[in-house]
Amino acid sequence: MARIVAVANQKGGVGKTTTAVNLAASVAAAEHKVLLVDLDPQANATSGLGLESADLEHSVYAALMEPSNAGALVRSSELPFLDVLPSGPDLYGAEIELVEYEERYARLQNALHGLESEYEIIIIDCPPSLGLLTLNGLCAARSVLIPMQCEYYALEGLSQLSKSLEMVRAGPNPDLYVEGVLLTMFDGRNNLSRQVAEDVRTNFQGRVYDAVIPRNVRLSEAPSFGKPILLYDISSKGCQGYLALAKEFLEVPGTQ
Amino acid sequence: MARIVAVANQKGGVGKTTTAVNLAASVAAAEHKVLLVDLDPQANATSGLGLESADLEHSVYAALMEPSNAGALVRSSELPFLDVLPSGPDLYGAEIELVEYEERYARLQNALHGLESEYEIIIIDCPPSLGLLTLNGLCAARSVLIPMQCEYYALEGLSQLSKSLEMVRAGPNPDLYVEGVLLTMFDGRNNLSRQVAEDVRTNFQGRVYDAVIPRNVRLSEAPSFGKPILLYDISSKGCQGYLALAKEFLEVPGTQ
Ligand SMILES: Nc1ncnc2c1ncn2[C@@H]1O[C@H](COP(=O)(O)OP(=O)(O)OP(=O)(O)O)[C@@H](O)[C@H]1O
Ligand SMILES: Nc1ncnc2c1ncn2[C@@H]1O[C@H](COP(=O)(O)OP(=O)(O)OP(=O)(O)O)[C@@H](O)[C@H]1O
Ligand SMILES: [Mg+2]
Ligand SMILES: [Mg+2]
């Protein structure tokens, strides 16, 4: 049974993709077999690892429409222990199409069934919404990792996210739990950052990672070279942050 | 006929809400009658102006379901010339519900018909997606303002956004044009910022505002006080950026 983790937060631009890509790469560097599923039509996780975005038949879209297909769609990345189930722009249409499908929340869950035996860890990058794509991610996962930008609007969104997780737990995925909350783009010099970090630690007692990702321009440069931070600038503060996260992630699988 | 502008970009966290709120407030401060429509279930534009998010019957959700209702849902803000059509979390359900409705792209357009005579300018804050809520915003608007964060992933998303605008122009709203592209969170000290800004100016010849919004922590602090930057810190670089934008916005209504 693979450990399946959804990286989700409906607030935009909080570091979901940066976290999914760099956590997956750091864990793969420690020689654990990892699959990264890009469930966002923006296909940022796909390009962040240097892959071209996929067309209709070759992206996660095809796996949602025909779950038994998923294995054939997986691609390798530059890192030997990291594979990717890529996304592409056709996924934009999927949200509307999925409304009419049977088991519309369980399409990804069914698609990953056939893959679980090949991977130790499966990480799902979700889009900035609470629509059917994200709900598929939350139903396929056993736990959710919440990147949390240290800003006011992001803080406001946490209560809505918690409500959605309740809804998923009450319905299609009763065992879903919060793996951890990761503070991202933290800037210790700025009051707002510190204040938000304190609020989050109070709201999510005990489930906030010790690892904190600082605001670091190297993290935003790396995707333009199609590389995770580990292969772009291993000595950067951003990379140190994600290596610390990977260590914590591997130590405590998270229980609820 | 009011000037109706959608602030849209499917990339998350690029400054859509910050732009919608602060442009609306700056234009209202110049005594033009403005309505800000919050079309995002996150309801950040609503709270960014100090208003409580609305429940089902009192939010833009009710205007989408019953367009003739819209006038009764409008609320005033702290600024005399600025009103708000607020959002609330119930809007999350609207995207799925709208799929089954007649004229599912034109619900907001119909709702704003009755309001146009009361306002000179209507600004619509869109969510980070290309689903039915954003499509409603793009069909109700006559032009679109694109906030563009000076980062790599945001640059990648521009071509998808252009395709979606083409789709809207080919279908329900043939006259939609790009009012302008606004560079946000610009940091002149960083190569990536300058490079992205240059790429954007090449891609969108002549339609990039001269006004550039610098990264400025005061902009991210203002929403925690429920105030636009004008009322929070008028001397800040962020405020100067949005006042310059408002001036440009009012000078050239944008033509194609
Ligand atoms: N710690 C950091 N320091 C500096 N820049 C960062 C950091 N983390 C992410 N970024 C940059 O901030 C932007 C937003 O991050 P990212 O795209 O990962 O967020 P997201 O939550 O996946 O966005 P979306 O909601 O669009 O999916 C990107 O341009 C990214 O490169
Ligand atoms: N120029 C700026 N300088 C510093 N911080 C900014 C700036 N513009 C916006 N912010 C902050 O960055 C975050 C993202 O901005 P904002 O929420 O306006 O983006 P958005 O595109 O509306 O996001 P979403 O995709 O979730 O709707 C917010 O916390 C905001 O306060
Ligand atoms: Mg992302
Ligand atoms: Mg917003």
Separate helix tally of chain A: 12
Biggest chain pair interface: A-B, 39 and 39 residues
Order of adjacent strands in the largest pleated sheet of chain A = 3-4-2-5-1-6-7-8
Instruction: Note the gap between the termini of chain A.
Output: 18 Å
Task: Give the names of the bound compounds.
Answer: adenosine-5'-triphosphate, magnesium ion
Instruction: Give the SSE string of chain A.
Output: EHEHHHEEHHEHEHEHEHHH
* Poorly predicted parts of chain A: none
Report the radius of gyration of chain A as a whole number of Å: 17 Å
The oligomeric state is homodimer
Strand content of chain A: 15-25%
Fold and architecture overview:
- By secondary structure, chain A is an alpha/beta fold.
- Chain A contains 12 helices and 8 strands.
- In chain A, helix 1 (16-29) crosses helix 12 and helix 6 (107-113) packs parallel to helix 7 (132-140).
- Chain A is globular, with a radius of gyration of 17 Å.
- The two termini of chain A are 18 Å apart.
- The relative contact order of chain A is 0.19.
- The model of chain A has no long low-confidence stretch (mean pLDDT 95).
- At the A-B interface, helix 2, helix 5, helix 8 and helix 10 of A face helix 2, helix 5, helix 8 and helix 10 of B.
